[in-house]
């Protein structure tokens, strides 16, 4: 059984996946206050103490972007750009 920390770690890194983000957006998850509060809580992974656990630290930039401007998720160009960036990072890692 996974701990809360493990679930949070897995979830925050899934934010790098444009298809998963699109699924969350289309499922109206971002309209739920509880979900938005959860996203804000995940900011703790940005601290040096927790950042070391991230295999995909770029997820923190995605997290901040969607917290600060949820309307970003309405634009197909956001998903396309994220996909290109992720491909570049994975290819050059």
UniProtKB/TrEMBL annotation:
Sample GO molecular function, one term: transcription coregulator activity
Annotated localization: Nucleus
Alphabetical list of Gene3D superfamilies matching this protein: Mediator of RNA polymerase II, submodule Med31 (Soh1) (1.10.10.1340)
Major localization listed first in the record, in broad terms: nucleus
InterPro entries: Med31_sf (IPR038089), Mediator_Med31 (IPR008831)
Annotated GO biological process: regulation of DNA-templated transcription
GO cellular component: mediator complex
Keywords attached to this entry: Activator, Nucleus, Transcription, Transcription regulation
Cross-referenced Pfam families: Med31
Transcription keyword on record: yes
Subunit and interaction comment: Component of the Mediator complex.
Family stated for the protein in its record: Belongs to the Mediator complex subunit 31 family.
Biological function: Component of the Mediator complex, a coactivator involved in the regulated transcription of nearly all RNA polymerase II-dependent genes. Mediator functions as a bridge to convey information from gene-specific regulatory proteins to the basal RNA polymerase II transcription machinery. Mediator is recruited to promoters by direct interactions with regulatory proteins and serves as a scaffold for the assembly of a functional preinitiation complex with RNA polymerase II and the general transcription factors.
Protein name (Swiss-Prot/TrEMBL): Mediator of RNA polymerase II transcription subunit 31
The species this protein was found in: Enterospora canceri
């Amino acid at each position: 059984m996974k701990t809360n920390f493990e679930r949070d770690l897995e979830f925050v890194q899934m934010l790098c996946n444009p298809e998963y983000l699109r699924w969350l957006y289309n499922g109206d998850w971002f309209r739920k206050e509880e979900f938005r509060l959860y996203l804000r809580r995940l900011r703790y992974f940005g601290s040096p103490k927790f950042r070391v656990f991230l295999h995909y630290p770029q997820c923190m930039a995605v997290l901040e972007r969607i917290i600060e401007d949820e309307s970003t998720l309405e634009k197909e160009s956001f998903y396309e750009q994220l996909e290109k960036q992720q491909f570049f990072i994975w290819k050059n890692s």
